[in-house]
Amino acid sequence: MTYTENDALAAKGTSPNRVAAFFDVDETLIRGSSSFILAQELWRRGIVGWADIAAAAKGAWKYVLFGEDKEEIDALVQRALKCLEGHSEAEIIAIGEEIYDQFFASRIFPRAKELLEDHRGRGHDVWLISATPSQITDLLARRLGATGGIGTRVALDENGRCLPRLISPLMHGAGKVGAVHWLARKRNIDLSLSYAYSDSANDLPLLRAVGHPAAINPDPKLRLAALASGWRIYDMRWRKRGDLSNSAKKTAKRSAKVAAAIWLTRLVVRQLRRILR
Q: N or C: which end of the chain has fewer CB within 10 A?
């Protein structure tokens, strides 16, 4: 599904009547960072250099350990755009097909795949939405049998080669929820009856936009929000079937206090760094 900055002005549809499930990708459907996996393959092919792969690795580890960081993501996007400049969309798609078979397929959380397939079985639209390049998001959606994908779109020249700029909002935070509202208008989706799954507090606007939000492998801030709101929590990294039972919620609440302390410490450190710059 094509989504650009101009689509923020899309016309309103008729009365909503569809139900949809929206899945984030990294650490929600797939273990780790899909962008880092892509960067590894681009490095192997000589498209990116050591400095680029090191930056991607740093971002991936920070993502896994501490959750998303907007400044880090923005810097990685600019670096990635410079690396992709001049390469064809067809080349990126071909690389994506290879890394799906080699890496993505084995990193999909089985329980997340079950959730996706359950929504399909109930006749729901299923959409993957991620800051990952749209070519990769579309590929993942197709391979997993989802309705479609919405990813970050890179500008192309008349020959189908990448330009160093975006033609869509970055599918992150407010960008995601904007795309979901656009999609709801285009496809007559009733968001009050729909579902959303994410691991990151940056997706709280998306989760709050639907009637049935859930957290998968949540970062500390999202875990706190999910517990406070009574949302379902799935811990798929450590548990074979990840939804927390009622008996486990007391333990989760205690651990959430520790998680909150870690998150607050990170926030204070970031503020101090900004002051001292």
A: C
